[in-house]
Automatic annotation (TrEMBL):
Residues the record marks as active site: 52 (proton donor)
UniProt protein name: Glyoxal reductase
One Gene Ontology MF term: oxidoreductase activity, acting on the CH-OH group of donors, NAD or NADP as acceptor
NADP-dependent oxidoreductase domain segment(s): 19-259
Keyword vocabulary terms for this entry: NADP, Oxidoreductase
Site (Lowers pKa of active site Tyr): 77
PANTHER family (alphabetical): 2,5-DIKETO-D-GLUCONIC ACID REDUCTASE, NADP-DEPENDENT OXIDOREDUCTASE DOMAIN-CONTAINING PROTEIN
Length: 274
């Protein structure tokens, strides 16, 4: 098990279970160096979005990395004001151009914009059929959004990327996704390091000679959750990747599960200021 360890989407495409998220990394040198160092360390999964405004730097780092394109799993997303069928067609082309890629490995609807996401999804189905996106999915969708989308879709989402960490376990959404063979992916998997001083995490870190962040990332992995921790620092990227040489016991997992408080860092999908 390593950074090349993958989960299999319901269409057979494989996604590395640990990737690099680049939200809030500045376009230019900052994101370029972060992606380049991650790829040099062995990361093969990079997650960006049009909203992040750093696709060009991500693309340049990929081109300059020396890693063959087919070994790198690249995700990007359509933002809220780009949604709707025709707008999404344009948004996708813009992202492809900025990334300087021929195809996207995973294209996501960033948020479930009311009255728009079903039309947006039709565009994603087209990208998938045309081979421009190897996989398609959604982000920040709750069960009722997913149910609504699936009812009227020809292709089911392959991934739902949501805010997920021990204090926001998203049990219902995870259960829905499992029942519908949709992989769950966690953004903000270590909750921006907001509660790494929690005694449970601290004790487990001591027990395994790991950091609290590594304990959380291992918890994600053992829950079959893909995660994309963000770090611009090579040392932290290396640390985040060192989660495959130990295993939490079922008691440890339960102790971490008990941290759930339905505590969000980001907005609630039903209350987002669309």
């Amino acid at each position: 098990m390593s950074l090349t360890t993958t989960a299999t989407l319901h269409n057979g495409i494989e996604i590395p279970v640990l990737g690099l998220g680049v939200y809030k990394m500045e376009e230019g040198e900052s994101v370029y160096e972060a992606v380049k160092s991650a790829l040099a360390l062995g990361y093969r999964h990079i997650d960006t979005a049009s909203f992040y405004q750093n696709e060009e730097g991500v693309g340049k780092a990929i081109q300059d990395s020396g890693v063959p394109r087919d070994e790198i799993f690249v995700t990007t997303k359509v933002w809220n004001d780009q949604q709707g069928y025709h707008n999404t067609l344009d948004a996708f082309d813009q992202s492809l151009e900025k990334l300087n890629l021929d195809y996207i490995d995973l294209y996501l609807i960033h948020w479930p914009v009311p009255g728009k996401y079903k039309e947006t999804w039709k565009a994603l189905e087209k990208f998938y059929r045309d081979g421009k996106a190897k996989a398609i999915g959604v982000s920040n969708f709750l069960p009722h959004h997913l149910d609504d989308l699936i009812q009227e879709s020809e292709i089911k989402p392959m991934i739902n990327q949501i805010e997920l960490h021990p204090q926001l376990a998203q049990t219902e959404t995870r259960k829905f996704c499992k029942n519908h063979d949709i992989i769950v992916e966690a953004w903000s998997p270590i909750a921006k390091a907001k509660y790494l001083d929690d005694p449970t995490l601290q004790n487990l870190a001591k027990k395994y000679s790991k950091t609290p962040a590594q304990i959380i990332l291992r918890w994600h992995y053992q829950n079959d959750i893909v995660s994309i921790p963000k770090s611009v620092h090579e040392k932290r990227q290396k640390e985040n990747a060192a989660i495959f040489d130990f295993a939490l016991t079922s008691e440890d997992m339960t102790a971490i599960d008990m941290l759930d408080q339905d505590n969000r860092i980001g907005p609630h999908p039903d209350h987002f200021p669309y």
